[in-house]
Every structure is written in C-alpha cells, then in structure tokens.
What does this fold into?
Amino acid sequence: MRAYQKGNQVEKLKRTISAILPLQQDWQQKAQKRLDSLTKPPGSLGRLEEIARRMVGIRQSIHPSTTNKVIFTLAGDHGVAKEGVSAYPQEVTAQMVYNFLSGGAAINVLARCIGAKVIVADLGVAEDLKPHPLLRVKKVGYGTKNMAKGPAMSRQQAIQAVEAGIELFEQEYQSNGIDMVGIGDMGIGNTTASSAIVAVLTGQSPEQVTGRGTGIGDKLLHHKIEVIRQAIALNRSDPDDPIDVLSKVGGFEIGGIAGIALAAAAHRVPVIVDGFISTAGALIAHQLQPVSKEYMFAAHRSVETGHKAALEKIGLSPILNLNMRLGEGTGAALAMPIIEASIKILTEMATFQNAGVSEQIN
It folds into this structure.
C-alpha cells in the first residue's frame, strides 16, 4: 500500500485495492465444523479440506457455487524479444491469439473439458489483430520497449495495464457472473520479463529465477540471464514499489493479470493462478495489496526455475505438479475441477448422523 501511493495513481486501482478485505474466520470455522461432521476421519481429505475452507471464506457461503468458471488468457509482446531470448519469433504471439480464438489451443481443449469459458484479451500485441467476437482489446501499446535498453514502459502505462485487467474482470463479472477465475498468458519474451520481476521482488539473482521458457538450450539460457541482469542493473527498479518494477522490467499482459487478481479479490472471487508468468502477475498484485493472497490458489508448480521463488514470496502452495510450462491458463483449467471437488465433498458427502455411522470413540 505504501508503494502504491508513491506515484500519481488512478482512482480505479486505488478503489480496487481498498476493497480487498481479509477473510472472516467465522465462515472458515463453519466450513470446518461441517467437514468434521462428515463420514471420514478428521482431516483425512488433506488439502481438499483446506481448499473447501478457503472457498467458503472467500465466497462467504457454506454452499459456494463453482458453476461460472472463466479463464482469462492475456496476450502481449515484449521488446526484449529483440535480444534473442526465445526459441520462437515474436510473430507467434499474434498467431497464437488467433489459435485461441479458433478454439485450437491447449487452453481451449482443457476449458471445454471442464466447462470453462475462455476470454482472450489483447493487452499489447505488437500488431493490430483482426476483429473477432471473442477478442477483448485493451491494448496499452504495441509491445513493450526493450528493457535491456531502458524501461519497458512508462509508469502510467503500467497503471493502465493493471487497470485494463480490472476492467476485463469487472465487465465479465457484471455481465455474466464469475464463480472462479483463472489467469493465463501468451507473449513471446514474457518469461524473460517475469524472471526479471521475480528477481527484483524476491531479491534472488537472475541465475536463480531464470528458466528455459520456450525450451532454449544452454547457450541461449546463459544469454537470457545476462540480458535480465543487464535490464535490472540499467533500470534500477524499486523493489518496494511494484508499479515501478512492472514499468521497468514487466509486460502489459503481466500488469493485466495483476489487475484481474486484484479485481477478483475485491469481489470475493477465488483466483486460480496458472504458471510462472501468471504468478509474476499475482506477485505484483500481492505486493500492491498483500491481502489479495487470501483469494489466490496456485494451480500448479511450473518447471520454470523462478516459479518456486515467486510462489514462496506470495506464500502459496501449488495444487498440482505435472512438469508443465505452457502457460495460457492450462494449469488453472486443470486445478479448477479439484477445487470443485472440494466443494462437492463439503456439500454432498453424508454426515455421521445422517448416515447412521458411529463417530470416533475419543
């Protein structure tokens, strides 16, 4: 909150941050009482019980709905791609957006599998995309600038990116409702930006938090680490000011992800955080408002090196570990049914009394 007030901030972001309140323990206690009455040894369903308690606390209902599942896949290009840090050319960002819109990407397949809606948004693709009824355009710029040569964006653009995410969430929430929101990404070069964000905000070195992204080899990985080191040294981001960090070494889609996480928390909607890039966005949100963590679920543990550091900084424990590193929101899609299962256990499982089963002797 202190860092948020450093610059000339916009009212929408301030209002959203102020609306995020800690979870009330009484709702979680109600959930625990219900869980302890079910036909099982206390605590025997492990993290399913913890997830159910938090869901009840977030939604303030002992029967929280999980029907309206929405996954936002935010796209943006990165000027640092000019440094040759990815195995793929920058044009792939726009090409993959069209793939999302046609329903052919992994996130589309997994979303259909679980009955989730995918919303694709252009936060900063380097070209104008063809109009499409499923595309939301919140373009902050035509890709960020090269952070190895200077700031990735202005401070005002960083705020605009976060607020674009807030607007995306609120428009869908008001129009159709959202019970669970997943956050995903697409953008060539965005693991480089995410590694830089995580390095600055955790205090770890670029070597400790930089992975292979799209599958680069050892030589290119070393180069990528050096580019990140150069960007951090040149831009001198303030680790106590997440907006400054986002503006110096971040990405438009990463800012948008942070905005969605903040808006969801403000509306008491659980946030299912995908992999490394989404967690970098969630980390920005957490640094702006630490209470937002209480509304987040880490979908999975990515094989990207910096993901563990980012999760630990926020204080999240991943639900799954499937050696994934795709992004798009795919991990969030896979974790959503587990969260739904925790609520089914809470609301549909018989109690000892109803089932006529004897309870523990002691």
Confidence is low (pLDDT under 50) at residues 1-9.
